[in-house]
Amino acid sequence: EDKMNKKKLYIWEAFSLFYIMLVTIYYMISISKLKIAIFPNYRNIIFISVPFFVMAIFFRRYTIKRILIYLVLMVLAVMSVKQSKEYTIFLTVSQTLCAFDIDYRKIIRLILNTEICFTCTNIVLGLIGVIDINTIQYTRMVSFLSKIQRYDMGFTHYNYFGLIIFEITVLYLMLHKKILQLAVKDIIVFLLINLFSYFISGSRTAFLA
């Protein structure tokens, strides 16, 4: 019986993590020019991910309280889709439901690695011409860089590159319980990465990171 329970636990955790990864990929494609050049039907990822979500939910153990929480959250998520015609809240809620009872470090590490791989791939595809990298001259009234040349690095907006770098920085820090004990080299690397992102994209989000 213990072996069966462990196997069942492994199954729902595997389905949950795979679903979370698919939603993260969907999110990354939605802000990338890959959705125009390569994946015009990227929204199909949502439908592909549904069986994994169902299996992740099906193999779990439930209490009455947990069932009520799931039902309330899913009803609110479905209502948000009907009202806004967007899947953002629904996907966030479904990811949250899948994340229950899983070590948060596994989830953060999964999302972190997915975003790093996708961002690097997106930049490389932009540099070799598979997707466009647009530039714009931008002037700020208050900034130590008054005039900058902004590059979108293959994303659909110039700020998205800085946003993703910010997310990667935060996720990396969340994996370390004692931030003050981070190695100096790690701090320097992330500082340089975020400064590079700021100089390239002009996104102040990366500068805040």
Key traits:
9 helices; two-stranded antiparallel ribbon
What does this structure look like?
The protein is mainly α. 69% of the residues lie in helices and 5% in strands. It is built from 9 helices and 2 strands. A two-stranded antiparallel sheet has the order 1-2. Helix 1 runs antiparallel to helix 5 and helix 1 runs parallel beside helix 6. It is globular. The protein starts with a helix and ends with a helix. The model has no long low-confidence stretch (mean pLDDT 81).
Spatial shape: globular
Figure out the total of helices: 9
- Rg, Cα atoms, Å: 20 Å
| Distance, first to last CA | 48 Å
Low-confidence stretches: none
Please write the string of helix (H) and strand (E) elements: HHHHHHEEHHH
The secondary-structure class comes to mainly alpha
Strand content: under 5%
The major pleated sheet works out as: 2 strands, antiparallel
Mean pLDDT over the residues: 81
Total beta strand runs: 2
| Helix percent band | 55-70%
> What's the arrangement of strands in the largest beta sheet?
1-2
